[in-house]
Specification:
The protein is mainly α and 321 residues long. The chain is built from 18 helices and no strands.
Length: 321
């Protein structure tokens, strides 16, 4: 079971969420729900339901309903309810779950896997609620010093948050600090790739190598589990201006998982740089798959801003000015 847990964990880290869910369910169907490895395996599956696009909190809650109310299980259940409340714009329910997650942090012992899971769940809810500073504090990430977290999932999530708020400098410090004690970790490789994509230039080449190696892994190559790595390769190529190369990687990914929201989002972006008329088509498909995708929200915001400025524009006023 331990080897299966490692595979499930690796799929989760790589963003192969459906593969993670499928393997977790098939490997725990005859296992005792109280077995620690089975609990950890199902927690990764539940987290995959929450991380996928679109998120599926109902399936996450259903998956965990038969497990004992251990703190790490309660944390993922609470995060699922938070995500569910957020999709319903239920701010009262969101606040209740953040309070619940904050209280569960009392059970998050440093160095224990369950403690890491609780911290990641609480920090995710805080970040989604707009409190990046408290989310990073919860993870013990953001200083890049020797006192930074020594829990690799906390570090990886923290780096992702730092990059999201455009603090590349702090993300690099966390990466360098973590390399001293987790240099052979899959998450360290992925963190290096994320930072490479954020930095741009020559650093994107190393990001490409990381994703290329993962995509060619015999356990993933030619299956939907390779899709996140193919998207990563496409992103690295696009960052270097190789739009045709990026398009080829996304075409390969689409052949494995045609309705993947992240493939559609990236195809829409890439097509705007290849003199193609397909960008709007992909945006339309993305809206059908996940109407709440961040790209669609940003696109709609830009359209509104353009319309507002266009409504104020006057050739006569411009000439007089």
């Amino acid at each position: 079971m331990e080897s299966t847990l490692f595979q499930v964990q690796s799929l989760f880290y790589q963003g192969a969420y459906q593969g993670c869910i499928d393997l977790a369910l098939s490997s725990t169907s005859n296992a005792r729900s109280s077995d620690p490895a089975s609990v950890s395996t199902l927690l990764y599956a539940a987290r995959s339901h929450l991380a996928r696009s679109p998120s599926d909190p109902a399936s996450a809650l259903s998956l965990l309903s038969s497990l004992a109310a251990e703190p790490q299980v309660q944390a993922i259940q609470s995060l699922a309810r938070f995500v569910q409340a957020q999709t319903q714009d239920n701010t009262d329910a969101m606040s209740r779950e953040i309070v619940n997650l904050t209280e569960l942090l009392d059970h998050a012992v440093v160095g224990e896997d369950k403690g890491q899971t609780i911290r990641c769940a609480a920090a995710t809810a805080l970040f989604l609620d707009g409190d990046a500073e408290e989310a990073l504090n919860t993870l013990g990430v953001g200083s890049g010093s020797s006192s930074s977290s020594k829990e690799i999932e906390c570090v990886a999530l923290g780096v992702h948050m730092l990059l999201s708020i455009h603090r590349l400098d702090l993300a690099e410090k966390e990466y360098l600090a973590a390399r001293a004690w987790a240099d052979d970790s899959l998450l360290i490789q992925l963190i290096e790739a994320w930072i490479g994509l954020a930095k741009g230039g020559r650093a994107t080449q190393q990001a490409f190598y990381v994703y290329d190696e993962l995509a060619q892994n015999p356990s993933a190559a030619g299956t939907p589990n390779a899709v996140p790595s193919l998207i990563g390769k496409a992103t690295a190529l696009a960052a270097n201006g190789d739009w045709q190369g990026a398009k080829k990687q996304l075409d390969d990914a689409a052949a494995l998982d045609p309705s993947n929201a992240h493939i559609l989002a990236n195809r829409a972006v890439v097509e705007t740089h290849t003199a193609s008329q397909a960008a709007q088509e992909y945006l339309g498909q993305l809206k059908q798959v996940n109407a709440a995708h961040p790209l669609l929200a940003e696109y709609a915001a830009l359209e509104r801003a353009f319309d507002e400025h266009a409504a104020k524009f006057s050739l006569g006023a411009t000439a007089e000015a």
